[in-house]
Design brief:
By secondary structure, this protein is an all-alpha fold. The protein is built from two helices and no strands.
Length: 92
């Protein structure tokens, strides 16, 4: 028959269990840091790859033939609008 009182555990047993749990926590922390470092390095590599790809895409878009033609057409449209405004002012 068990009593209502708490079971007695000697202090040295509690201390041994405490150090066992502390060792487990330390081991898990070291493993996690190692794994986190691997993921961080891979993330950094992917980010650099993204930046390079984005820069290449941007320069390709800016230097493409259709982009150059679009810039020239826009410049011609602005020039035409300016000429039209000047003609309207001179006509008054």
């Amino acid at each position: 028959m068990e009593t209502v009182y708490e079971k007695y555990r000697p202090a040295h047993e509690v201390l041994i269990e405490y150090y066992a749990y502390e060792d487990l926590r330390r081991i898990l922390k070291i493993e996690w840091e190692h794994e986190d470092d691997l993921y961080r390095k891979h993330s950094d590599v992917l980010w650099k790859e993204y930046e390079n790809a984005a820069a290449k895409e941007k320069s390709r878009e800016e230097n493409s033939k259709s982009a150059r033609i679009a810039r020239k057409l826009e410049q011609m449209r602005l020039t035409d609008e300016l000429v039209t405004k000047i003609k309207l002012r001179n006509a008054k």
